[in-house]
């Protein structure tokens, strides 16, 4: 049985669940993703930004725009009006790679975890796209929720 | 310097590179992603498919549809006409989680790595969405290219 | 004269009408569509679901996702945040075919008839697409509003 | 078993089938839809076009634009470059209603039935939207393929 | 320094700014665009509307639909639920060309200048597309905000 | 009569014209747009790029992404697979403002004027969006085709 899967009804069929009775509250989620790459690729992506070019900016904007497309991509997500989206990208510590942190906020009836995760994922995919001519073996890893607040299911903070 | 980043011109500005002179060839890419989750969540997602429901089917379809949106999501990707997309999802061996394998093919002037990676990522995000009421801590990991063939840059096969 | 057509102004020009003064209320609409097909096609589509595969699930998800695209497809529809969408598909009684019922809900300033009708239509088109290799002559029929509630224009219930 | 459903693999899983080996040929499909409505509604929609306004033009354009969105709406449709789309709308003979005929063409590896059917459906839905302030009970019926040519599966012409 | 550019943070990075604390108010913006063209082209476009055809209607509908796509096109725009959109197109006085006026309204937390400007721009681009077989040299000019009301930054009225 | 407007049939109805018999050739178009703004705004936008931030990069990427959406925005445009898109933005000479030049290329059956014009327009709209907190009165002007080559209708070069 599909017990616990709220996106399936009692016959196991997918549906977009009813949120019409949930209160309108301010909601926030933060997600992260890491892109593991060779030092030369990381260096090229970073120097391709700042004074030199658009590499990091392109990934940041791709992530922000993807957050707005979440309900188009994830079949059972409710459409919602995001009130804030940020994507930050920087070199990882101790590992060769880039770290993406995406924050999404809304004032609405449902949470924004999927928006934050989608922004982080698409920013990471865009970094892969920018760097793939140098290194096809880059790996995106640790795409996950960091924190979440504002819903009735309680706050979440990754341990 | 942005040396090696083909998506930036010599001033470091993002552009969609010229592929007009590249030959039309048959191209194929395979990508994977893993979703690490508790056994109970994996079990619910799997049993929510097969005879019981739509969980895995929803993720598979989300991945296939996302492959078709790749050029909308990744700023410098060329639009292309995919000739085949498949997404397979099954339980992981030795680890509690689900493994996604996405294959994309086209007959065209540029490769389909990003289409395969986007399909795998969005299928994984959809699995997260389906299971998040049970476990917000699921992690998507090892999103990466498995193999690629058909372009002038040579074939790629993950070691 | 285009009397009675609220989507045209007094010069007959299309516009998206002003709903800014309408109250925010909970709104709901149910629509249906029927897909007439040979028994063998109906059987294949149904057995291609449940324990055997994704046919019905694919149509259900297509309908849910299409509901979210209504304002992109229907030129003068207002964008709105759906709070619930369901699509149910089952064999027809007494006739060889499949029956689709779509329900859409929102809390907003305008009704969701078009969302329910779009979901039902696209689910039916997807069933056609799934079955067309077997039977190109399938017909979609009786796409219509079943009930509507929540707006100032009064409730509607098909006789 | 899902025998005959080409969009499912032998495990019953949805996939976008491989068309990479199919020849590039000129392909054409014609589809129709009927919108049954009261004479007053039909009259308002028709007079809201021609010299008086945009009603029919809006539906025609919605149908043409929807044809271009077919691969976004129908999960397993291949994206393709339409070379021609027309939508014609006129009063029905002997029945009170409007008749929609949509034609789609491409030069490619797969047929355009779904594009023609989607154009006809969305044009019909838009006529409903334009007229629904007058008559919520309008019914869309007989959405079906009229003819198809250009593929290896042979031509189709509705009897 | 990027002083004054609210869409950049203090490191110069693009973000979608936080509007979660802004009051929900009724907001309205009007924008215009002009399409300069030869008298024969203007005449063909105008006569291609009214009783003769769909030229102006097509541009009007394109503008209305584009308003709904603003947040997809302009990277840092917040998605919002438009409550009204109109696009008016008429011959210019004293100059050979067509004048577009677009009005957008919402009840929300942020302004609709970009929606009005996008509607006017895309209506103008569509007029260009309709007329380009006659005159490729048409120029779109004076795309600008005419008035804006409803936000805390004060009303704007072009002098 | 709508003589000369190829997007209308002989009844004045909009259609997407048949290009199925046109040869596949390499096609290219260049378009421009100017954004007139106060020196302080121009300075902020320019310094918000390069080493300081993402302003110009955001507009460049918005233009490139919009080129890929042209057939979604302009109702009668054929969808096509762009093989190259570039957007360049720099300070104007002798006038206070920013100049946008967009280039689009394809190998196909129809021209890419609308893609280049759409890229230039949306890049200009994005510059407006980035700078509007400083100056709501900015004007976008001289949006026009600069050159075009590759189609049977002959090359175009603005005098």
Q: How does this structure look, described?
A:
Chain A contains 4 helices and 5 strands; from the N terminus they run βαααββαββ. Chain A has 159 residues and is α+β, with helices and mostly antiparallel strands. The first copy, chain A, has a single domain (25-152), classed as 2-Layer Sandwich (Alpha-Beta Plaits). A 5-stranded antiparallel β-sheet of chain A has the order 2-3-1-4-5. In chain A, strand 4 (139-149) and strand 5 (156-157) form a beta hairpin. The first copy, chain A, is elongated, with a radius of gyration of 17 Å. The model of chain A has no long low-confidence stretch (mean pLDDT 92). Chains A and B meet through helix 1, helix 2, helix 4 and strand 4 of A and helix 1, helix 2, helix 4 and strand 4 of B. Chains A, B, C, D, E, F: Catalyzes the conversion of (8S)-3',8-cyclo-7,8-dihydroguanosine 5'-triphosphate to cyclic pyranopterin monophosphate (cPMP). Chains A, B, C, D, E, F: Residues 16-151 form the Molybdopterin cofactor biosynthesis C (MoaC) domain. Chains A, B, C, D, E, F: The active site is at residue 129.
Please indicate the count of domains of chain A.
1
> What is CATH's topology name of chain A?
Alpha-Beta Plaits
Segments of chain A where pLDDT lies below 50 for 5+ residues? none
- Overall CATH architecture of chain A: 2-Layer Sandwich
Strand order of the largest sheet of chain A: 2-3-1-4-5
Q: SSE order of chain A, as H and E?
A: EHHHEEHEE
Give the largest interface pair and sizes: A-B, 65 and 65 residues
Structural class of chain A: alpha+beta
Distance between the termini of chain A: 30 Å
Tally the beta strands of chain A. Answer: 5
CATH class of chain A: Alpha Beta
How would you classify the quaternary structure?
A: homohexamer
């Amino acid at each position: 049985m599909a017990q616990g899967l709220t996106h399936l009804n009692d016959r196991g069929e997918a549906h977009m669940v009813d949120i019409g009775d949930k209160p309108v509250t301010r909601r926030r989620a933060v997600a992260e993703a890491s892109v593991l790459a060779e030092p030369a690729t990381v260096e090229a992506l970073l120097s391709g930004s700042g004074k030199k070019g658009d590499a990091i900016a392109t990934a940041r904007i791709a992530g922000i725009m993807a957050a707005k497309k979440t309900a188009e991509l994830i079949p059972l997500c409710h459409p919602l009006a995001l009130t804030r989206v940020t994507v930050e990208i920087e070199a990882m510590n101790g590992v060769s790679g880039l770290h993406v942190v995406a924050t999404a906020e809304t004032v609405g009836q449902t949470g924004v975890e999927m928006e934050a995760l989608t922004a982080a994922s698409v920013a990471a995919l865009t970094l892969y796209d920018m760097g793939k001519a140098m290194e096809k073996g880059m790996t995106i890893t640790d795409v996950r929720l960091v924190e979440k607040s504002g819903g009735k299911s309680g706050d979440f903070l990754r341990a």
